Amino acid sequence: MAKSSSKAVALVTRVSAPRSTKAKRVPARRMGPVGSVNWTAMLDGAEDILRDEGYAALTSRRVAERIGVKQRLVYYYFHTMDDLIVETFRRLSMRTLERLARAMASTQPLRNIWDVNIHSDDVRLVSEFIALANRVVRLRAEVVSFIEASRRIQVEALTAAMKAHPNESRIPAVGLTIIATSVALTLNREGAIGVRTGHAEITATINSLIDALEPV
User: Fold this and answer.
1) d(Cα 49, Cα 52) in Å, to the nearest integer?
2) CA distance 118 to 152
3) Closest by alpha carbon to 85, among 34, 109, 50?
4) How far apart are CA 48 and CA 81, in angstroms?
5) What CATH class has 81-216?
6) How are the residues of the chain apportioned to helix, strand and coil, as percentages rounded to the nearest 5?
7) Cα Rg for the chain, rounded, in angstroms?
8) What are the tens digits of pLDDT across the range 11-43?
9) Contact indicator for 111, 210 with CB cutoff of 8 Å
10) What is the C-alpha to C-alpha distance for residues 89 and 85, in angstroms, rounded to an integer?
11) Per-residue CA distances from 50 to 122, 139, 176, 190 (Å)
12) pTM for the model
């Protein structure tokens, strides 16, 4: 049935079109320039909404209201909201990876990497993007790539420190990395709503381990 229907559509197309007329290609929709002031402002607005209100509030209308433009302008710069979300995360991930790379290259990589994890609004934003990745397929791939890349940097730093001080931890470097990043995410999420119980104790524990692996 489907095959017959397809043949019929093709036949109608051939018969109804003049023989001398060639199929015209639909021109691509004109888009606003990448990296322009408005384009960047929309990424900033999306970040602000995620940070202040959470992923459920992130809509084209809210982004437009946040930066003071008409809603339709959002779709002049981005085909869909998913495109805006993915670009916002890409910028965030590059920013965080650059910070981790600088920390890795410093004289005290463990302390500086922990500082990036614990003292950055980006950590809380990452948790919002992880939640969004459950419904935005393209974002999921970007989030996975970012987590793997950031984890490699942290595992490399811990592996080097543990070789110099092999008796300080029985947990492998990748395990310590997962623990530390999970703690950072928890502290940032809970701190944002006012939870403080246990935060000082777990922070002191991690600082103590850093002191042992990376003596000042």
Assistant:
1) 5
2) 18
3) 50
4) 15
5) mainly alpha
6) 75, 0, 25
7) 24
8) 333 333 434 445 455 456 778 889 899 999 999
9) yes
10) 6
11) 10, 15, 28, 16
12) 0.81
Tokens of 62: 């809210």
Enter the tokens of residue 57: 């509030």
Residue 125: closest CA among 44, 199, 200, 19: 44
pLDDT one-digit tens code per residue, 113-151: 999 999 887 888 988 999 999 999 999 999 999 999 999
Distance CA 111, CA 115 (A): 6
Tokens of 45: 């607005």
The CATH number for 29-79, chosen from 3.40.50.2300, 1.10.10.60, 1.50.10.100, 1.10.8.10, is 1.10.10.60
Smallest Cα–Cα separation from 9: which of 17, 153, 71, 60?
A: 17
Which residue ranges make up each domain of the chain?
A: 29-79, 81-216
Residue with tokens 């530390």: 180
